[in-house]
């Protein structure tokens, strides 16, 4: 496995676009099945009221956004959502909670029940619940969790311009705990927060030096939400998204690169370039956690037009290959 330097990643990132897409597509073809895209479902099981100050996030209690606080959902409601997701062709379901960290209480027991239930339906279950200890990660693994999402979001240098209530080491430490529990790691970030190309590269570098490397890397385009400090950020040019996905694909050849938030403002042609450049998955369903996402039927139309097929659950290469 190649040990990338920041300079080398920056050179990849700055490659003329057509050449970059071409190289990324070659890597994609070598390590993945062209045209296979995982349909993932996203559910906000606990919404809003979060004590953290992530500048991009509409769920932070301190910002005045339109998000309504909702306590932890019931297992029965989550079960219905999982059945619907499966019927819609999803092979992975991600549960998100607006928590700073997991606490050992009844709510956590409930989340463990949700994981058990969804896993028993043959879906890959992912959760993103904030910081976790090794013991908590182990309990999630025992309940049948497949992946834990914990994003680095940006470079270490830029981190405290975006978030002050925790630091990069806190994030890396949770990722370590997740690994020790034998879970697969999903960790990526956001572009369009006013960061420099060097920050995008710095984030990819930080992900590339993890051993094993993350099995899954979500690339989000900022959804600028009114009331958050980043509300006035201009939309990310589609070319930046394609460039970021292509660079991620080349630097992390075996990883599942996820075209995550921000598809509302992308054309089908723009998304096609993202798939060409190595994107392996989308979130389907008309809502992400709190913000809109393309209509399900529109995405299915896109799959038809582009000749994409939904990926089956648990068909990824083994973790050992990422070491
Ligand atoms: N509270 C947990 C945490 O922060 O780890 C889990 C949920 S949090 C909403 C999960 C991820 O969603 C964040 O790390 C961030 O990358 C992404 N996210 C949140 N708000 C976003 C936005 N407005 N645009 C794009 N991505 C966003
Ligand atoms: C990730 O990287 N993106 C998803 C998932 N992991 C949890 C979340 C996107 C959230 C977008 C803003 C919202 O809908 O609140
Ligand atoms: Fe809270 Fe997560 Fe939003 Fe940060 S990203 S404010 S930790 S829900």
Q: Any overview of this molecule?
A:
It is built from eleven helices and ten strands. It has helices spanning 6-13, 17-31, 75-87, 106-119, 134-142, 156-162, 168-180, 197-208, 238-251, 268-276, 296-306; strands at residues 36-46, 92-97, 124-128, 147-149, 184-186, 189-191, 216-221, 256-259, 279-284, 309-310. The mean pLDDT is 96. 39% of the residues lie in helices and 15% in strands. The protein has 323 residues and is of the alpha/beta class. Helix 9 links the parallel strand 7 (216-221) and strand 8 (256-259). Strands 1, 2, 3, 4, 5, 6, 7, 8, 9 and 10 form a ten-stranded parallel beta sheet that branches. It has one domain: TIM Barrel, CATH 3.20.20. The longest helix has 15 residues, at 17-31.
Topology:
Layout: H1 6-13, H2 17-31, E1 36-46, H3 75-87, E2 92-97, H4 106-119, E3 124-128, H5 134-142, E4 147-149, H6 156-162, H7 168-180, E5 184-186, E6 189-191, H8 197-208, E7 216-221, H9 238-251, E8 256-259, H10 268-276, E9 279-284, H11 296-306, E10 309-310
Parallel strand pairs: 1-2, 1-9, 1-10, 2-3, 3-4, 4-5, 6-7, 7-8, 8-9
The structure holds S-adenosylmethionine, 6-(5-methyl-2-OXO-imidazolidin-4-yl)-hexanoic acid and iron/sulfur cluster.
The site of iron/sulfur cluster has 9 residues, from loops.
């Amino acid at each position: 496995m190649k040990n990338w330097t920041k300079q080398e990643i920056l050179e990849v990132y700055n490659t003329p676009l057509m050449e970059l897409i071409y190289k990324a597509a070659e890597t994609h073809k070598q390590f993945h099945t062209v045209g296979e895209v995982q349909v993932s479902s996203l559910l906000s099981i606990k919404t809003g009221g979060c004590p953290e100050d992530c500048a991009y996030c509409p769920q932070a209690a301190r910002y005045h956004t339109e998000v309504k606080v909702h306590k932890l959902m019931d297992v029965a409601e989550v079960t219905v959502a999982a059945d619907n997701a499966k019927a819609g062709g999803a092979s992975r379901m991600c549960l998100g909670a607006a928590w700073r960290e997991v606490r050992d209480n009844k709510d956590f027991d409930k989340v463990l029940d949700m994981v058990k239930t969804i896993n028993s339906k043959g879906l890959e279950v992912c959760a993103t619940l904030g910081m976790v200890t090794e013991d908590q990660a182990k309990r999630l693994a025992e309940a049948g969790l497949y992946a834990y999402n914990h994003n680095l979001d940006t470079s270490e240098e830029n981190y405290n311009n975006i978030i002050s209530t925790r630091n990069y080491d806190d994030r890396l430490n949770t990722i370590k705990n997740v690994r020790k529990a034998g879970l697969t790691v999903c960790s990526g970030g956001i572009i369009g927060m006013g960061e420099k190309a060097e920050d995008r590269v710095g984030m990819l570098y930080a992900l590339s030096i993890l051993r094993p490397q993350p099995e899954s890397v979500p690339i989000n385009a900022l959804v600028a939400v009114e009331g958050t400090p980043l509300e006035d950020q201009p939309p990310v040019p589609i070319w930046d998204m394609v460039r970021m996905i292509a660079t991620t694909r080349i630097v992390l050849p075996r990883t599942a690169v996820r075209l995550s938030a921000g598809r509302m403002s992308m054309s089908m042609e723009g998304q096609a370039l993202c798939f060409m450049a190595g994107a392996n998955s989308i979130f389907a369903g008309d809502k992400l956690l709190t913000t809109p996402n393309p209509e399900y039927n529109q995405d299915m139309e896109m799959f038809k037009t582009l000749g994409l097929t939904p990926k089956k659950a648990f068909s990824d290469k083994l973790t050992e290959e990422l070491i």
